[in-house]
DNA sequence: TGATGTATATTCACTGGTGAGTATACTTCG
DNA sequence: CGAAGTATACTCACCAGTGAATATACATCA
């Protein structure tokens, strides 16, 4: 119970992570978090100036780890670009089969705080999603694809769609369908991009 | 079933609709709803047995109207199948530009109640999304497309992705990107399908 | 060395307010 | 009358945030 050596702030953030993700923002009180962290509420308020502040810190703490995971899945996947993109979706399907999976914390927080567009956590969430989009765009760009930005956005849309749809139906298979859609869109972009080694007689564009 | 078709009940449901959609489920109290409806909380409890019951009624009341809207957008759109599908997305982009737009109520409710998978409102939400998916699948099927089910799911994923992503970035343009992705996927399915014989309304001329 | 000051970190007990839900009584109309 | 519908006024739990006090660590200086 008493852990004099533990860093209280980290403990609070860890507890907040688990509870906010598992139950939702407004469903969790700072009393809940304090209890789970083994501190009093006042200690929570010592380290975070308000609940909103803690919510922001919660999302911020997930930003880099989540992005790193996506990158890892992409980089470690076998095959060409379409396969690597599809791999992200297949990994999400796997994650979603775990009983504690409850969708994307960023998306769920955005949905819950939709009435507070200026909330600091909303900005963190938007920035996170944008980073993912730009990273993917850069990957496409590096391979010389045309329309990298639009393609990246399409993949992002499928990804967020997968998160949402899986949550609604509790059916991770949707991630695989989304992965196949993403694969098709990437393949299409690869095939229609500037010359690679095309055996087709593509006409120059008007 | 009972038919409590009183004025008060409708007023309460209307108020619940506005408030739940605008602010979120847990952010709105029955006191808020009662006040907005111009009745006392006890009257709310006379017509709805609990807050959960009212949340369920809120989503149920949006089921048919929303589906009708999607159908209308689809049916009234010019062009071939890909255009009709894309039209839904363009209409969503337009809706999303209204300042009071706050995403898809079904999705946001699912996100907020993700910790209560058995909640009656969750079932209503899942059923609603499934109806849309099956309607679209049937439209594809009617045109003799192969893989209608998978294609319908892909479009659904893009649609829910658009709702989510627009909400995160407050940028309705994502709906247009999603629409183009959907168009591409539908075109691909049309082109790869076994020759269909049904003369459809798609014009032969670009 | 030891006394004292100061910033960090934490607790207990509390406030003002709101939440879901209820007990009871009043009203209106068939 | 009596049932449907509404109102007043309540309970009890919880919640975000606070006040005052305390404990610990470490520095400064007499």
Walkthrough of the structure:
The structure is a homodimer of 206-residue chains. The first copy, chain A, has 206 residues and is mostly helical. The model of chain A is unreliable at 1-5 and 196-206 (pLDDT under 50). In chain A, 40% of the residues are buried. Chain A has 2 domains: 1-48, Homeodomain-like (Arc Repressor Mutant, subunit A, Orthogonal Bundle); 56-204, Tetracycline Repressor, domain 2 (Orthogonal Bundle), CATH 1.10.357. The radius of gyration of chain A is 20 Å and the shape is elongated. Chain A has 9 helices and no strands. Chain B binds a DNA duplex (30 and 30 nucleotides) through α3.
What are the SSEs and their pairings?
2 copies of one chain form a homodimer.
Chain A: H1 8-23, H2 30-37, H3 41-47, H4 51-76, H5 81-96, H6 105-112, H7 120-142, H8 148-169, H9 173-191
Chain B binds a DNA duplex (30 and 30 nucleotides) through residues 4, 6, 8, 29-31, 39-43, 45-47, 50-51.
